[in-house]
Each structure stands twice: as C-alpha cells, then as structure tokens.
Amino acid sequence: MNSEKIEIFDTTLRDGEQVPGCKLNTKQKLMIAERLDKLGIDVIEAGFPISSPGDFESVSEISKLVKNAKVCGLTRANKKDIDVAAEALRYAKRPRIHTGIGTSDSHIQFKFNSTRENILERAVEAVKYAKSYVEDVEFYAEDAGRTDNAYLARVCEEVIKAGATVLNIPDTTGYCLPEEYGQKIKYLKENVKGIEKAIISCHCHNDLGLATANSIAGAVNGARQIECTINGLGERAGNTALEEVVMILKQHKDLNFHTDINSKMLNEMSVMVSDLMGMPVQPNKAIVGANAFAHSSGIHQDGVIKNRETYEIIDPAEVGVNASSIILTARSGRSALAYRFKHIGFDITKNELDFLYQEFLKVADVKKEVKNDDLYMIMEVCSRKIV
Ligand code: KIV
Ligand code: ZN
C-alpha cells in the first residue's frame, strides 16, 4: 500500500525563536532558512512580520531566497497584521498567511473579554481578508487543545467556507494526552463539513513532554501536516522536535507515512541551530543528542560490537552521524576495550587484552571517561611491564 505523505512545517524561526536568549539576526535566519529548504521542509514559518521591523525584514528576505518550500508568516486575526504579512511575503514563490485567534473559553473570556460568536466572526473575517492576498491560508485555533470540540468544529467549518486551506489545531499549553489529542483530530475529521477541502495540522507544545507523541497521534487520526522545530526549541518546554517526528515516521513503516525530509541532514541541522541560537542540545536528546548513539555499559557495548541492531534502532548514518560511539568507562568490558584499541591501530591478542584490561580498570575507576590518550598511556605502561 502506498504510504501517505505528512507535510513538515518548520517553525524554528518563529515559535523556536521565541525562546528567551535565542534571538537571531536576519543573516542567521537566512542561513537556517536556506538549509531548511535543502532539508526538504514543506513549509517554513519565517516569522511574525508585524512583531518588529527586524522580523519583517527577515520574512521578506527569506521569501526572496527560498526556492522550494512554501514561506509562511504569522498574524493575529486583524487586518493590519495581515496587510504587513502579505507585504513581507510579497516575493515568496509560494506564500502562506497563517492567521488565527484563541478559541478556548479561557482565551475568549480572559484574553479577549468576548463571546464565542464574536470570535467566530473575527476568525472568518481574518481568513477572508488573508485570502484576498494569497491562495494558501492556514488558520490556527489557539489553545485548541482546551477548546470544546463542538465549538472547535463550528469554527473549522466556517473558516473552511471562508477559504482556509489548512486548519492548525494547536495544543498551545501542552496539556493534552496523546489519546485525547488524537480523538480531537478524529472528531474534526468526522464532524466538520467540507473537511476534505483542507488539511489538518498538529502544533503541539511540550509542557508535559508529550509534544511528539501528540503529533503522531494526530497524524494517525487524520492530520497530514506536523508543525515542529529543530531540537524541539520553542516557548517554555518547547515544540514538537522535527528530528523525532521525521525518524518516527521513517522507522515505523507500520504507520504507513512518509515525509520528504533528507534525514541524513538532521544532525548538521541540529548543530547549526544550536550554535546560532546559543542553545546547547541536552546530551540524552533523542536522535541528535551527543549520547544518542553512544554506548557505555559493557553488556550493551558487547552487543553493539557483535551486531549494531542489538541496542540501536536507527543506523546513525541515517541521521548524518558517522558511527555509534563506544565510550570507555569503568562499566566497559574487554570487548569494548579491544574494539577501541583496534580503532587506534592496535591489534591485540587475548593474553595482552587480559593484561591491558587490568590497567584500564585502574584508570577507569578514577576517570569519568577513558579517552584515546589514556589508551596510549595504558599501552605504554603495559609494554614496559611486558618487556
Ligand atoms: O502554540 C500556538 O498556539 C501557536 C499559534 C500562534 C500557532 O504558536
Ligand atoms: Zn506554538
């Protein structure tokens, strides 16, 4: 059966850049946008043009630069925002305006001091107005995760009639459980008239560590676009991590989905964004963390040396990492030590290995990690003793 495509919408330059301390200048944004385009991203959310002259400039320059991806600008549901976004996107080959409004009762009451009816009208007006500029209009129902499903379905139905091509269902506060978020998408698929004219998009935040799981649940239940960021950067605990979604869809053939992302670029993408934003990646981060393909306990190392698949579900080359690393610590065994000695040019016999291993343990017990220069030193000490 042919697999279905999941569009990847990258919002590193918009939601990702909202992280305190991660501000980028236009040049840096252009470097990232160019690389995202090569990576195979379907939609690049380049910024929020009305938010500052700098952001306007970035969206405008990115629009001129990007060759393949759709370029998208965020707006609130008002004419001024939409005018400015349309102007910033003027040179984009495939422009998209992303407009929307909060739909949960708490947003309606506390943010807008308004009513459901009034919010519905504003949503429809915004989509119609955006549509007067561009064909491709994405509507976001902010805080959809906590919005009543029947009301959300009404909003979706009306904005589709007004011309929305994509319906973004954000779990803005990262509150939903995967089952709940998946059911929300299913409910919309089954209850919104005209839903076949639009695609549903997942935009999940990671406050409970569920952003990726929720996005996948959304896709399984009918969404065909996932919004995400490199390294999962974003407000508070971040957004869905792009590299996780891409590799889940790639590794789980049972889901029958594919993306157009060149996964071999994921590691370099992660390093570039981390360096430019000055935001280190946690070592145990899935897919792109420094330890994602590192093995340090003896049992695991022995297994991986015999056959990589015993403890690795992804070939590191698939994400652009040269090789799995065998880290030497006091928990490592003889086979890992022999492997690392071989790696630096020493073919050792079984007897030599027994001898070297005892010296190795002495060093390992006082160090966090035994590195190559320690191995040379161990080899030297042992050769002296053997002689
Ligand atoms: O999290 C959210 O709801 C958003 C919208 C503005 C799309 O980022
Ligand atoms: Zn968001």
Automatic annotation (TrEMBL):
GO terms for biological process: L-leucine biosynthetic process. Gene3D superfamilies: 1.10.238.260, Aldolase class I. Pathway: Amino-acid biosynthesis; L-leucine biosynthesis; L-leucine from 3-methyl-2-oxobutanoate: step 1/4. Keywords: Amino-acid biosynthesis, Branched-chain amino acid biosynthesis, Leucine biosynthesis, Manganese, Transferase. Residues 6-267 form the Pyruvate carboxyltransferase domain. CDD domains: DRE_TIM_IPMS. GO terms for molecular function: 2-isopropylmalate synthase activity. It is an enzyme of class 2 (transferase). SUPFAM superfamilies: Aldolase. Its EC number is 2.3.3.13. Pfam families: HCS_D2, HMGL-like. This is 2-isopropylmalate synthase. It comes from Chryseobacterium oleae.
